[in-house]
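Much of what follows relies on a compact textual record of a protein's fold. The record below shows the convention in full:
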Amino acid sequence: MPQKLKKKPRKLNPSSKIRFINPEAPDLRILKEAAKIIRRGGIIIFPTRGLYGLAGDALNPDVVSRIFEIKSRPSAKPLLVLVKKQESLESLVQNIPLQARQLMKKFWPGKLTIIFSARQTLSKILTGNTGKIGIRLPGYPVALALAKLLDNPITGTSANLSGQPGVADIRNLDSTILHKVDLVLDAGPLAGGKGSTVVDVTENKCRIIREGFISAEQVFAALNIT
């Protein structure tokens, strides 16, 4: 019998997993497709207000490990997560200090990431073994709608190699990242610029870890700190 020829592996066409999405009025069918992929343990690229991010099931250690691998991210650097509502915090954090409640009332949903003391049930891979977890309730329509379609929080880390600038245009994505994700939601060029402001409320005195869209003055004003 003639020997069967081995099939050559099919090359991935990146465009086959790109879905164009209206950033202000996202198509529910596309969002549901993305949510289905995340539920199955997949990872997608999605738009936030300024930059593109990597979304996966934040409570799935295998997914989180894969995101670290995709980004070549040091294991000691935790990933922030996005939640669909403030009540989701109960299963993620040990407590919600008064300062956190003041900041959430003023800035959520929006451009503020708050670092809490993480529940011990959370994967140490997700928290970078720090015992802390950064959380944001997104205000951007695509990110918020996607979070609302899922039961678990999703990761919100930027879609770039660790140490490299964030990406505001899909055309500037690193090719290795593009080939390793399962779906891309392309909302066109984003605003770019600063990321979210990051505030740590795990100690008695609130600390600003990174000043982003929201200024330090705005944070202190919300806390009645002069």
In short: The CA atoms of residues 102 and 128 lie 27 Å apart. The chain has one domain: 14-222.
